[in-house]
Amino acid sequence: MEFKKDDENYIYEVISKNVKKYRKLKGWTQEKLAEEINYSLSFISGIESTYHQTFSLGAIWRISRALGVDFAKLCEDDSLSNKSKYINYKCNKCGEETKLPIEMVKLFKDINEITGNKNLPSFDCTKEDCNGKITPTNPMDF
Ligand SMILES: [Zn+2]
Asked: Which of 35, 67, 99, 138 has its C-alpha lying 20 to 30 A from 26's C-alpha?
């Protein structure tokens, strides 16, 4: 859903997407994040849902510290930045699609090359109960 910037739902949506993104990048489930900051699971899933439960600055501050992400990063609208900063990945098992920052993928690619591994970096799927691997949807992105 798209909100106009003068609608306060806009910032809730931006933060909601970012919490989900950075939580997944860290490989955490919603349960794990809830546990780390001592909030209920329903509170975390509420933040990440499109229903946009309101939340306090303090809650976001705690989440940013737990995830190790700058507070300001959680308030940044990704859709405004260059899309090519991300590489599309897809799970070979559950089909879940995700975007990974290109800098991170390149770093792993370099590490792979040092160890003589010519494959493009793949990662464990972060979806619960899925032990699939996520691989680049379009190898031409490299
Ligand atoms: Zn999966």
From this structure: 138
CA distance 116 to 105: 16
CA of 78 to the centre of ligand 1 (A): 23
Q: Which domain holds residue 126?
A: 82-141
pLDDT tens column, 51-87: 767 889 999 999 999 999 999 999 988 776 555 678 8
Q: Is residue 120 part of a domain?
A: yes
Q: Domain count for the chain, please give it.
A: 2
Q: Which residues surround ligand 1, an ion (CB under 5 A)?
A: 91, 93-94, 96, 125, 127, 130, 132
Q: Cα of 134 to ligand 1 centre, how many Å?
A: 7
Global pTM value? 0.55
Q: How far is the CA of 58 from the centre of ligand 1 (A)?
A: 32
With respect to residue 137, please indicate whether it lies within any of the assigned structural domains.
yes
